[in-house]
Amino acid sequence: MLRGVPLKGNYDAGGEQMSRISGLTGDEAVALAAKQCDIDVLAAYPITPQTIIVERFGEFVANGEVDTEFVCVESEHSALSACIGASLTGARVFTATSSQGLALMHEVLFMASGMRCPIVMAVVNRALSSPINIHGDHSDMMASRDCGWIQIYAENPQEAYDLTIQAFKISEDPEVQLPSSVNLDGFIISHSMERVEILEDAAVRSFLGKRKAALIIDTGRPMTFGALALPDYYSEFKRQQEEAARRSIAKVAQVGEEFGTLTGRRYQPVQAYMMEDAEAAIACMGSVAGTARAVVNSMRSRGHKVGAVKIQLYRPFPREQLRELLSPVKAIAVFTRAVSFGAPNSALSSDIKSTFYDAPSRPTVIDFVGGLGGRDVTLTDIEQMLIKALESAKRVHVEAAASFVGVRE
Amino acid sequence: MTYGKGWKDLPIAGVITESGTSVQYKTGDWRSFRPVVDASKCTSCFICWIYCPEPAILRKEKGVEIDYNYCKGCGICSVECPSKAITMQEESR
After folding, report:
1. Is B16 close to A114, i.e. CB distance below 8 A?
2. With A288 labelled, which of A37, A237, B1, B84 sits at a CA distance of 20 to 30 A?
3. What ipTM is given for this predicted complex?
4. What pLDDT does B31 receive?
C-alpha cells in the first residue's frame, strides 16, 4: 500500500525524519496512522455511517499486518463501551465513527472522559438526520462538545494523519488522561485523495512510546472503576476532569511542537494566517480553513487587510491564544458548519465572544452559519463574510444572531 | 477514600484502589420490612440462602441467620421459603 517516493522530511520546513509521499484519502491516512501507532484494540461498528477508516484497518488485520484485537460490535454504543473496557486494562485503543454513530455514542462519551480513558477516536463529521443526509458538516461533534473529550479538527488528509498520531501522545500523557476526537470533514477530507507525507513506522513508535497507565484493571490487584459517586464526591471528580482539560491545552501545543521537530510540520491549537496587520479576520475550523487562506491571498492582492485564523483545538478552547491573536483586529467573521437552534449565537461564535467579553478592547464578532449537509462553502461566500467584517470594522455594529451563508431565500 | 478529601487528593476518576470496600457500605438501613426467621419452622433447606441477592442470609450448621447490616428487606426469602418460616415485619425506629 505504501508505494511512494521516499524523501527526507518536508522540503519546505525540514524535519529530522525520513518520510514517504503517497496519495491517500483522509480515511486511509487515519487508518494508516492508527496502524503505525501500534494500537492494541479497535472496537467499531462496521456499517453506515462508518467510514473507510475501519474498513481499511480491517484489511490490515486480515493481512496479518497488525496484531490489533479488532472487535466488531452491533452498535456505536457498544463500540465505545468496549473501547472503555479495553482502555482500562492499559491498552492503546482506537475507534472511528461519524454523524448518527457519534450521536448513538453520546452517553458513553461522558463515561470515557469521566473514567479518564485515553481513547483516540476519529470522527468523520457529517450532518445529523432529519432530513437524512450523509455529507459533511460539524453538527455531530458540536452536539457533543461538552462531553469532556479533547476535540481536534483537521484541515486535510495530511493533518488527519498527523493529528491522529499526536492525539495518542496528548491523551496518554499522565497529566491529561482524557480521550481525544480527531475530526475530519465528511467527504471533503475523508473521501478525497491528496498528497500525504508518511512517517516510517519506527519513527511513529519512538515518538509515542508505550502507553504507561497508572491505575488499570489487574486481577492481581482488584480495584473498582466507574463506581458510584453521590453528591458528597461527584463534584470533586468533575473538578479533576476540568483541571485535566485545562492542562491539556499546553500539552497539545507541546506535542504539536515536538511533532514539528520530527516532521517539519508544526501544529498549534490556533493557527494564524496573515494576521500581523489584519483589520478583519475570518475564524473557522476544518477544511474550510484552506479556502479561507485562498480568499485572504486574493483580497490581500486587492489591498484589503484581512487574515484568517484556524481553530485546530476546539475543546478545551484555546482562549488565551485566540485572545492574543485576535485582539488587534477590529472585526472577526466566525464561520460555523452547525446550527445551534434558538441559541443567541452559533457555538463557535459564542465561545469567541465570551473569550473577549472581559477583554480591554473587543473586536466586533459577526456570526455566520453555512456549509450544512455538505453544501459547498465557496470563495465568494468567504469573501462576502470578510467584506462584511471589513465594513463592521469601520463602525460600531453588532450582529445579533447568526446569519446563514449560501442558503436560498 | 476518607470522607472530605479534596479533588487534588482523591484518586483519579473515582477509582476505588482497594478491593472489598463494599462491606463498608451498610445497606441495611434502606429496609422498611425486616425478615424474621421462625427457627421452629425452618427445615435447613437453605433455599432462602440460595435466593438472597445480597447475600445477607448467613448459613449456619442448623438453620439460617440474617445479616441485618446488609439486608435491604426485599422479601424474596420470605416468598421462597417452602415452610413459611420467614415473615416480613414492619421496621420501626
Report:
1. no
2. A37
3. 0.84
4. 94
